[in-house]
Amino acid sequence: MGNIRILGTGSYVPPKVLTNFDLQAMGLDTTDEWIVKRTGVSERRIADPDVATSDLAYQASLRALEMAGLTAQDLDLIIVGTITPDTCCPSAANWLQAHLDAPQAASFDVTAACSGFIFGLNVAEQYLKNGVYRTILVVGAEVMSRTLNWKDRSTCILWGDGAGAAVLTAGDAGPEILSTHIHTDGANGRDLLMPGGGSKTTPISHESVDKGLHTLNMIEANASFRVAVRHFIESIREALDFNGLRVEDVSWFIPHQANLRMFQSIAKFLDVPMEQFYVTLNKYGNISSASCAIAFDEAVRDGSIRDGDLVCLPVFGGGLTWGSALVRWASV
């Protein structure tokens, strides 16, 4: 059995752009300067009302399959990381399987908030290592705009919609996933959550909607910021230590696109230049499980990532969840 290889990557964001100036024009008590200073976000992409998570995932998947030189009929397993599936049942992965016309592939969702893509890679890694499947599609996809209270400037300014994907196999050539690492802290999951929609608040009622239980809530944002930075750094260290490597060996850090100030804090702690952080946050906002995957694909396609580069993908999300992947890039 060979090592875990990346055959292709892909991403997709909807065409509609929502700028900070648009938010201000909508009556939100904010300015472009305030949002950029606090978050680093200038604009984000918003899906049309008739577009679901699996639709975005489909477009990203087609791009990943094209790069891999494969068709959907070559897939054995489809994993979608998301907290905004088309429906609670079936899963977004099932809808994606249908869009791709890939009935031979098993499919399921992974729910790990902003860490979803890395959790999906970790699951795929286990299946490939034990030989159960040979070719796996992992997708991070979200329509976060449907989870927001557009009057709450502390949250609605952050998020956007989109999808990123990767096709994996076990082999002896091409970009290699050296390792993946995942962690959770359920006891502190209340700090970043969407409380409605589950068994605690069903059936959905006028009361639960009026209380804002079906929109994303962020509690103690400053504390969450500090916790996120700590876990980002821990995840990077864990991946490097596991592989006997140093921070100095890393060519690119492609983190979950949460907040520019987080990246600056991480860079300062690790004593690495911000130029080594690949950032898409400014143009897409935070797309939860999709953001890391989208940034990774863009870095591959624009030539930023080159043969021999060591790429670290650390993530942190609600739940609480965190983790990382370490990739050594090489031509297929």
Quick structural summary:
With 332 residues, the protein is an alpha/beta fold. It is 33% helix and 23% strand.
Q: What would your notes on this structure say?
A:
The protein has 332 residues and is an alpha/beta fold. The protein has 2 domains: 3-172, Peroxisomal Thiolase, Chain A, domain 1, CATH 3.40.47; 178-328, Thiolase/Chalcone synthase (Peroxisomal Thiolase, Chain A, domain 1). It has 11 helices and 13 strands. The protein has helices at 20-25, 32-39, 53-68, 92-100, 116-129, 153-156, 206-210, 221-242, 260-270, 281-284, 291-301; strands at 3-12, 17-19, 43-45, 77-81, 106-110, 135-143, 161-171, 176-184, 192-193, 217-218, 252-253, 310-317, 321-328. The chain has a 5-stranded mixed beta sheet with strand order 1-7-6-4-5, sandwiched between helices. The chain has a 4-stranded mixed beta sheet with strand order 8-13-12-11, with helices on both faces. Strands 2-3 form a two-stranded antiparallel sheet. Strand 4, helix 4 and strand 5 form a beta-alpha-beta unit. Helix 3 (53-68) packs across helix 4 and helix 8 (221-242) crosses helix 9 (260-270). The longest helix has 22 residues, at 221-242. The protein is globular, with a radius of gyration of 19 Å. The two termini are 17 Å apart. The mean pLDDT is 93.
